[in-house]
Amino acid sequence: MRMTEMKMKTPGINTMSITGVSLLWGVMLGLIHPGWSVLAAAVIMAGWGSETRKVYEPIGLKEQDRL
Question: Which strand (E) or helix (H) includes residue 4?
Answer without folding.
Answer: strand 4-9
